[in-house]
């Protein structure tokens, strides 16, 4: 069951049922056109409902455009006297590459050192979901997660590491099945090599 905008307080736009229906119909029409262009028969049994299914899937896969990740963090912001590393690792994600519109997926590791405030631990994966449910490149996704946490919580530092597999590399192009792409971004105290090394050692255990 897909999530309704009405069920989630972090959506920045209310859901207009008539507009949703119109959007899905327009996407479905384009998908039908693609099927015809690749010389498939969109009216054969296996494809009759494919355009509508694809339209609904794409609305779900791109719902992050209508959500506010900062609001997620601020909804559970607590004053706490703690100035050591907070780590949430192995956050599974999937996103769609903006270059080929094929999936990439993997794990996100996040650390921050509070400066008087923390957020609920479940909110960090939620932020990952929001940014990943947009057309993305891995480098920008890494930076957006880092910047959102830094701006919302103003910690002493943030570090984000993403390890991902890209279907555009595995299914086409170089067709390398086991390639892993790693990106990182950091602020504040994580500019010190020793702090970064501590984080990397902890997530690799």
Explain what you see.
The protein has 205 residues and is an alpha+beta fold. Helices cover 39% and strands 23% of the residues. It contains seven helices and seven strands, in the order αααββββαβαβαβα. It has helices at 17-37, 50-61, 69-74, 123-132, 138-153, 167-170, 193-203; strands at residues 77-79, 86-97, 103-113, 117-119, 135-136, 157-166, 181-186. Strands 5-2-3-6-7 form a five-stranded mixed sheet, sandwiched between helices. It has a two-stranded antiparallel ribbon with strand order 1-4. β2 (86-97) and β3 (103-113) form a beta hairpin. α4 (123-132) crosses α5. The longest helix is centred in the first third of the chain and has 21 residues, at 17-37. The radius of gyration is 20 Å and the shape is flat.
Structural descriptors:
205 residues; alpha+beta; five-stranded mixed sheet; two-stranded antiparallel ribbon; 7 helices; 39% helix; flat; disordered N terminus
In summary, what is this structure?
The protein has helices at residues 17-37, 50-61, 69-74, 123-132, 138-153, 167-170, 193-203, and strands at 77-79, 86-97, 103-113, 117-119, 135-136, 157-166, 181-186. It is an alpha+beta fold and 205 residues long.
């Amino acid at each position: 069951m897909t999530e309704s905008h009405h069920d989630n307080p972090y959506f920045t736009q209310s859901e207009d049922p008539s507009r949703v229906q119109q959007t899905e119909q327009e996407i479905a029409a384009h998908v039908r056109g693609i099927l015809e262009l690749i010389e498939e028969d969109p009216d054969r049994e296996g494809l009759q409902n494919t355009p509508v299914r694809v339209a609904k899937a794409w609305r779900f896969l791109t719902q992050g455009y209508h959500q506010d990740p900062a609001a997620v963090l601020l909804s559970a912001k607590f004053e706490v006297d703690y100035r050591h590393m907070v780590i949430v690792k192995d956050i599974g994600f999937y996103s769609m590459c903006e270059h080929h519109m094929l999936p990439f997926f993997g794990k996100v590791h996040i650390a921050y050192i509070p400066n008087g405030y923390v957020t609920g631990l479940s909110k960090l994966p939620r932020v990952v979901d929001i940014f990943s449910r947009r057309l993305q490149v891995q480098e920008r996704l890494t930076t957006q997660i880092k910047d959102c946490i830094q701006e919302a919580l103003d910690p002493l530092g943030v570090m984000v590491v993403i390890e991902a597999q890209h279907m555009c590399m595995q299914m086409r192009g170089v067709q390398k099945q086991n390639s892993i792409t790693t990106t990182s971004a950091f602020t504040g105290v994580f500019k010190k090599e020793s702090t970064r090394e501590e984080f990397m050692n902890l997530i690799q255990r």
